[in-house]
Design goal:
CATH topology: Rossmann fold
Shape: globular
Largest sheet: 8 strands, mixed
CATH class: Alpha Beta
Radius of gyration: 17 Å
CATH superfamily: P-loop containing nucleotide triphosphate hydrolases
Oligomer: single chain
Number of strands: 8
CATH architecture: 3-Layer(aba) Sandwich
Amino acid sequence: MARKIVMTSGKGGVGKTTVCCNLGVQLARLGYRVIVCDLDFGLNNADVALGVENLALYDLTDAVEGKCRPKQALTRHPRYPTLSVLPSNRVADRYVSPQAVRLILDSLAPQADFILLDSPAGIEEGFHRAASCAEEAILVTTPHVSAMRDADRVAGMLTNYRFSRTGLVVNLARKDMARRGDVLSPGEIASLLRVPLLGAVPEEDKLYLDNIAERSRPFREIASRLLGAETPVRRKLFCFGRKR
């Protein structure tokens, strides 16, 4: 049965979809069956990030409305055979209830090891729809003050769902700025938000240009920790304190 993990953030633009898709790729490369489900109705782009936007025949809304079977709504990635994408509809005004989404995901769960749910940013209806369908959560933020402030609000909301696991990924980490004391380090951010640090991803030109970085060591390590491996967060790179 699949582990259902919601990817969420307070502020938009922190790289939540990038983290979700790259984590899916790394898990698929390890041989796990992964479904990336885009629950950001109207602003969905997980299929674009994974480069399969022209391959999708159906989407989640089609499955909910009975236009296709849930399995038919999946788009298999041509490069990673155990990775599939469940895109959502670009028409934001078509209401989809949390119960309907759960029924679709529950029907797909026996066919996957992981279902990664890419939720909308913020704490509006879309966030609650995605969170109510998951059993675990990953909160994504950047070291920017506005992003951390919004992430703190989301972290508080996540406690209401009593997830079995909740982890933090700090995206766009800058060790040079953290060493100078210009921004908090990922370790300090995790302490501030009171969420265990799952990993940190530095600014990478590869991710900026291509969305997916197959050889990205940080995402490999995050995938390893998600699987329960005792892989230490690289203190040398990400968890240093400020210089005093």
